[in-house]
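My hope is that you will study the protein record below before we discuss the fold together.
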Amino acid sequence: MPSTAPRPPMAGTDGPGPSAARRWWILAVIGLAQLMVVLDATIVNIALPSAQHDLGFSDSDRQWVVTAYSLAFGSLLLLGGRLADLMGRKLVFLIGVAGFASASALAGAADSFGMLIIGRALQGMFGALLAPAALSLLNTTFTQARERAKAFGVYGAIAGTGGAIGLLLGGLLTEHLSWRWTLYVNLGFAALALAGGAVLLRRTRRDPGARLDLPGTLLVSAGLFGVVYGLSNAEPHGWDSVMTWGYLAGGACLIAAFTAWQTRAVHPLLPLRILLDRDRAASFVAVLVAASGMFGIFLFLTYYLQVSRHYSPVSTGLAFLPMIAALIVSAQIAANVTLPRLGPRVVVPVGLALAAAGMVWLTRIGLDTSYAGYVLPPLLVLGLGLGHVMPPAMNTATAGVAPNDAGVVSATVNTMQQVGGSIGTALLNTLATSAATHYLNGRTPTPRVLAQAQLHSFTTAFWWSAAVFALGLVCVGALYRTRRATAPAVQDSQQKAAMHF
């Protein structure tokens, strides 16, 4: 089989596709909804101390504000993706947006810890409907290779920068308004996305013979719940906790049972043919690795700037702006220049190499080093690297997918991102805490020594993030088979897709 570029998807809408102008308005709607979801990964984190003070919950309860969202979101993503395939992407998208907005309003108005947790869990549940529907809409709306590259460049930039934007916006809202506005802000995004989606999106044709794989849904949802909860539990209770390993082992067993069931199911939730495509599998790994390593940037660099350098929440958010700008520019270069010419086998590993180099560079920070000399340059390198990972990987992962599988493939991409973030948070937190403990052994805990121990924990996390990126580079480099894109190869892929359809 000849090497090809990422394969354009088959059309998934009835009749002729939307006009060029309409397609770009659709991208704006999808991007707005996606931004709303990715913001919530970090925007609430900055507001947690204020929310804790207002509602009076304990430090041990604080993690549940984050965990409730990630558990519901991560465990229900594949179900959300398949529902988009079965019920129609437009309908599921609009339900997801409306539900996410309602849950945000509930959480923002919370007068108790329990009400806040319910609102956050509902946010995760509706986010699991919204995120895969949005990506599958993007996949089926942009079918021309050049336009598709630009669209995925924009979408990938949003996915990559959303965490940093959340830090900035969360700091601004918490400092100048209230922690509640980190949740209420979603209402504005949702109103625009709902109005635009209702007008611009078209209903997609449903397959009357398709059915929901209920056993598979139960197995994978419970399995992902176990994995995400186990990783979340590792952060406060450590890796020696019986509960941590119990949930991880149970989740792994359920996912293994789900995989076995998919080989026998008449209407599988996640057809294994999707995972057997090497380019698609490599892209899933790339998204997983990028999400894992990125938490080394957002989490520990935020700690460093606020704890060691005494930045305010707003100043911390502003410190990430150069990386956001670099990532946006890099995403467009990757989507429109390097990916069409070189293919993902070159582009994605190069992006991971740049990301690893940026993390190694960050290990040179000190208690008295300047932002301009020791933080800004590696952030720019990280932005350039991640811009060459997320958009190309998402483009390749969703290319050439049959319309009836677009939702579940998009959900798999989102699942990799969510699980990767959970792995990164749990693993890096554990390693950082261990590094600080070892540093203090045999030392008198003076204020300066304690500050150095904290700094050592941050740089240790950066080293391990670099190692994650490097390991990902090796894995995706071995898996990818697609090389340089050529016009005949693209045309041949389109013809094969049309014949298959």
About this structure: The chain has two domains: 20-202+271-500, 214-270. The longest helix spans residues 406-440. DSSP finds 20 helices and no strands in the chain. The radius of gyration is 22 Å.
